[in-house]
Amino acid sequence: MSGHGHHGQADHGDHEVHEHDRGLSYDLPVLARRRMIRLLAGASLVPLVGCGADDSTSSAAASDTSSSGTASSSSSAECATIPNETAGPYPGDGSNGVNVLKESGVVRSDITSSFGNSAGGKAEGVPLTITLTVVDAASGCGTPKTGAAVYLWHCDREGNYSLYSDGVTDENYLRGVQETDDKGQVTFTSIFPACYTGRWPHIHFEVYGSLEDATAATSITNTSQLAFPKDVCDTVYATDGYSRSVQNLGQLSLETDNIFSDGYDQQLATVEGSVDKGYTATLTVPV
């Protein structure tokens, strides 16, 4: 399910309980469907990076230069598509108000600054490079999806979403589109997102069949979310500017998050790096 509902604008600065995503009741049909798929597949699923079985979670020990994420093994026997999730109330794809996808300049790799006729602001925070590898699930994740497109967006260091949140409605930073290369990859230069009230730290993305579809804001093939390992979040949120995220993260877990609670192995990014040098987050996205 990748539909978007209309939600009122929230003041994230006050850190009230916000409807950044539609919530558990909205996603119950998705959760039920995914659990049924697991029951049918059983133990036959072979863990893969970004497309493995739900019990294949692994993470490295926490350190400032640590690497965390899902386990990796090479096999093309089974490969499930990336779980479909709600895009939340702030997609900026025209389904809930504003549409950034049709604006000149949205096709870009560095999404830290606003572009076009926006206020021209820049999102501050710990540097983060995001690489998604889009692959064909039907081929066992062995074939890259060349010429597809990914629209990616996330909140800033304060937990605000450009175009929607109070104080940044005139900004469009932390949003961008990229066409996949011959390896099926897209790379975005960004900042590590905050943890806001009620949601585990995450990044939203939509996959389109082509760049033309993406910039026309039509024919979305997949909508999902990327999750971050806890040890990396703890390290990042100990730095200046992320103080609110510390308390919010302390009240959550991947197991209780209303999006990731039914299984997050396919969506847990592999993250490497450090606060000083910046982090890289990678995820394989079977579609």
From TrEMBL:
For this UniProt entry, the molecular function terms from Gene Ontology, in alphabetical order, are: ferric iron binding; oxidoreductase activity, acting on single donors with incorporation of molecular oxygen, incorporation of two atoms of oxygen
Q: Any idea which UniProt keywords this protein has?
A: Dioxygenase, Oxidoreductase
Q: Which InterPro entries match?
A: Intradiol_dOase_C, Intradiol_dOase_core
Basic and acidic residues bias spans = 8-21
Limits of the Intradiol ring-cleavage dioxygenases domain? 121-198
Per its UniProt record, what Pfam families does this chain match?
Dioxygenase_C
Source taxon at top rank: Bacteria
The ranges of region (Disordered) come to: 1-21, 56-97
* Cross-referenced PANTHER family: INTRADIOL RING-CLEAVAGE DIOXYGENASES DOMAIN-CONTAINING PROTEIN-RELATED, PTHR34315
Q: What is this protein called?
A: Intradiol ring-cleavage dioxygenase
